[in-house]
Specification:
about 375 residues, alpha/beta, seven-stranded mixed beta sheet, 11 helices, about 40% helix, about 20% strand, globular
Length: about 375
């Protein structure tokens, strides 16, 4: 298995360190920018833990594995990391990949704190071994549906690619919008292209188009095609999965990148810790940190607190999820059981619907919050 470049000392074998396995997408077809931001947050938190004495005097170290958005590769990485003796797993951005990792971690009895993936069913059965910081997809996408209704959209088209994640999102939207007077029109992107999507939108009298597709292909061509079709001058384009969050979106689309609402998991105001971390991440990334970078930082903050209290014993770590009370960058983190969710869940994750400001593409406007 390919190991991405890591910082010196990232895989010491003298037994002195407490090791955390980090799963991140760092190569295509994974969303590389998301992986870079996630890893930046993880690494910053590890450095800060070590600057303040580590884990009972032992250094905390990351063992990084690139999942490349491949579920089988992720499952194999979990096996490898378990064999290397990591105390816990952290990370992953892609939901289908995180599900494979969570399933394998559960089978091996390896604690996994999932940073960014939102698919409700991370495991088929309830598990004690897995906890999650990002909100379940059902909660976030229902917030997005409320935003659509408040903005006056009742005929909503979804351009969707075949995927468990996209299918789940479509179902959440349909089930939530239908009793509230909304209609979801599904456009199968395995049978359509960026041009024919426009014809379907006109024919179905849709007032909003949601991009439930990969980035940059085919999301970018679809946006360009819709923006240039005079018949669709009034249609709203949305991207609940967060494609516009990263700078690459604005780079590829320019002015067309603006006014496309998406979900992100930040509060209106960061905690004092968050303000400090934001500055450090900005310097590290040479760019504004995304919410994914904060998720990475908070993941290590939680695991470090657990490891300081309970040592590196895997079973004791898993038993501690319901006792976690950690001040993170975005609020106090506690885990609980939520109906229909198979893992320990942070129920208080902040959720916003934001877009890029047409007047200043690097600025985000908060349109709705929960």
């Amino acid at each position: 298995m390919t190991t991405p470049p890591s910082q010196p000392g990232a895989e010491r074998t003298d037994g002195a360190s407490v090791r955390i396995g980090a799963l991140v997408p760092l190569t295509r077809p994974g969303w590389i920018q998301a992986g870079q931001h996630l890893l930046a947050g993880l690494e910053l938190a590890v450095r800060e833990v070590n600057d303040t004495g580590g884990i009972a005097g032992r250094p905390l170290e990351l063992v990084v594995r690139d999942t490349a958005a491949d579920p089988q590769r992720a499952a194999a990485a979990v096996d490898e990391l378990a064999g290397l003796g990591v105390a816990a797993l952290a990370g992953e951005y892609h939901s289908v990949v995180a599900r494979a990792a969570a399933t394998r971690a559960d089978a091996l009895g390896l604690p996994f704190l999932c940073s960014s993936a939102v698919l409700d069913a991370l495991t088929e059965q309830p598990t004690e071994w897995v906890a999650r910081l990002s909100p379940p997809q059902s909660r976030g996408w229902q917030v997005y549906a409320d935003f659509l209704l408040a903005a006056g959209h009742s005929r909503i088209a979804v351009a969707a690619q075949p995927s468990v994640y996209w299918a789940s999102g479509t179902r959440i939207l349909r089930d939530y919008l239908a009793p509230r007077g909304g209609t979801v029109i599904e456009l199968d992107m395995s049978a359509l292209d960026a041009t024919t999507v426009c014809d379907e939108l006109v024919g179905n009298r849709a007032t909003a188009l949601l991009l439930l597709v990969g980035h940059p292909e085919p999301a970018v061509p679809i946006v360009k095609s819709v923006r240039r079709d005079q018949r669709l001058a009034e249609i709203m384009i949305g991207a609940p999965a967060g494609q516009p969050e990263f700078a690459e979106w604005a780079t590829l689309l320019g002015d067309d990148s603006a006014a496309i609402p998406f979900l992100r998991y930040l509060p209106e105001r960061l905690t004092p810790l968050g303000v400090r971390v934001e500055k450090a991440l900005r310097e590290q990334l040479a760019a504004a940190p995304s919410f994914v970078a904060f998720e990475g930082y908070d993941t290590v903050a939680v695991l470090a607190d657990v490891l300081r209290s309970n040592g590196a014993d895997r079973a004791r770590t898993a038993e501690s999820w319901p006792r976690v009370a950690v001040e993170g960058t975005r609020g106090q983190i506690r885990f609980s059981r939520m109906p229909g969710i198979s893992v320990w869940q942070w129920a208080g994750t902040p959720i916003q619907v934001v877009d890029r400001d047409p007047a200043e593409l690097d600025r985000f406007r908060i349109l709705h919050a929960a």
